[in-house]
Amino acid sequence: MSSGLARLAVAIPPVAVVVAAIAIWWLAVRTFDIPQYLLPAPGAVLEAVWSDRERLAWAMLGTAIGASSGFLLAAVLGVAIGSVLGLSRFLERGFYPLTLLLQMVPLVALAPILVVWLGYGQRAVIAAAAIVALFPVIANTLGGMRSVDRDLEELFTLCRAGTLSRWWRLRLPAAVPSIVTGLRIAAGLAVIGAIVGEFVSAYAGDRAPLGMVIVSAMKEYRTDLMFGAIGLAAIVGFALFGIVNLGGWLLLRRWHTSAGDAG
Amino acid sequence: MPRPSMCRSLLAAIAVSALALAGCGSDPGGSTSRDGDRSVAVQLNWVPEPEFGGFWQAQLDGDFADAKLKVELISGGPSVPAAQLVASGKVPFGVVSGGELLSLNEQGGNLVAIFTVFQGDPTAIMVHAQSPWQTLEQLWRSDATIACESYLPYVTYLNRMYGGQNLKMVPHTTSLANFVNDSSLAQQCFVFAEPVTLELEGIETRVFPVLESGFNPYTGVVVTNRAYLDANPAICRDMVEALRRGWAGYLEDPTRANEAMTKLNPAMSLEAMNLAAKKQRFLVEDEVTRANAIGWMTAERWKTLAEQMTELGKLKSVPTAIEGGVFWQPPVSAGPITPNEPTAPPGAAANESSG
Known about the structure:
The structure holds two protein chains of two kinds.
Chain A: H1 3-32, H2 42-51, H3 53-87, H4 89-104, H5 107-118, H6 122-146, H7 150-158, H8 163-201, H9 210-219, H10 223-252
Helix pairs in contact in A: 2-10, 3-4, 3-6, 3-8, 3-9, 3-10, 4-6, 5-6, 5-8, 6-8, 8-9, 8-10, 9-10
Chain B: H1 2-25, E1 39-43, H2 53-60, H3 63-66, E2 70-74, H4 82-87, E3 93-96, H5 98-106, E4 111-118, E5 123-128, H6 136-140, E6 145-147, H7 153-162, E7 168-170, H8 177-181, E8 185-190, H9 194-200, E9 205-209, E10 219-225, H10 226-231, H11 233-252, H12 255-264, H13 270-284, H14 287-291, H15 299-311
Parallel strand pairs in B: 1-2, 1-3, 6-7, 6-8
Antiparallel strand pairs in B: 3-10, 4-10, 5-8, 5-9
Helix pairs in contact in B: 2-11, 2-12
């Protein structure tokens, strides 16, 4: 089988599931005559997306900028915090439970106070996205740093490697596969965080982001548009996930077995 | 044997989904009660506050009990979909805005208004007393930041009237923290709610009621769905009668109901509730209610709202049946009718609206 056909074969199962799900959805709406305010038909959703395409394109762009900025912030902070905590057990025991708070805190409750602290607009959106995306990056960075081969650690000790050198030459490279896993989880979460942030802080108007489109469509009982906007938010999440996957594959393809199926 | 097992699983999943969805789209369970079961619930669209004072007064004065109704008042909140809950038959009665009713019905809903708390829409925009804006028009022509529900029809209406191109609209949350923090911020409010809370905290505001601009939808509208109304006309009629009495009692003396509500909603003090009740009175009563009954609605007002919303692009068309279709109300009677005397709602058949 050629590589093109092999790739096609890989794509068949997810496509088949999506097509089947849409068919069941369409059939259910038709069979039970479900009113649009409860569940729109797939065709109505596509129609709503098409007729509002310009507004939705801007909305997608706005959300993509907020989510990816929050994701980048979480990635940088997460790797830095995870690395620092990986330096000593004392720091880890002291601060790791605090980082768990990021996972536990209900973002919906926190988001309004972010607006009070940071003002309306993208800053609160980026902060909301970063808060939810941060923990998986910290946890996976720390996990990766802690799983370095003991023999290699001893080799670095024999060579009297300094802390920075040990981090840069040994622990960080060893943690990369784990960090990439954390970033994959963070990519999806960042979009959720950005949407929640937009619910409370985004500017309305023709170029309002997806969070605002979802709220206004919901309040106007435009479930067709709401489902469309939710679908587009998922596409932003998939795109971010895909970029992380690609980056991970480029980084790992030469030396790590996990890169085999990532690209 | 994977295939039969997969098929069975798939069929089971389809059956479960179908049952769930059938439940979503079905008529309300109450629609088949034929007035037999007189236990009903009212889904409020906000927490207990003076805008629902007459509901609690009817409970406390026994107006519901006199009508042989056992009523549960369900507290609402910012995310409670009161209109969908009533339209889908999960609760027989709910409180929504006039605009919500028209929008939902255009999307396949079947809501019927039976009572309105407010003749005048309490929606307003408040600014800090020291802000430079003296009128709603001045504010709307400025480059101010306004925390509001930008998707509501009144915003589009004001944009049509005053432009509003330079305004920056941000989401309206239930919090007053941003408004208190930022003296340049304008915020959507109810004339008798947020400004009263702020006044008691020593923060002076200037309030611009939206209704003065000419956009004045019915608000605090009690709705049921068409199937429930057709099946339970006596319950609907008695509910309206009890609400008329409850609201009359609340306007006379709101203290007891406010005491009951402040226990359920400690965030609003009794003092604030009493002050709010006083300030909302002129929106509940007007010449129409004095000539008919509290909560009375007119076809003309509903038609005006539908026409305005159509013009603003919020509706595709004006419903063809207003009286008996969009709203139904029993005539003013001497007292509640008994459960044995069901009365067909006038115009019950005229339940179709265009669009």
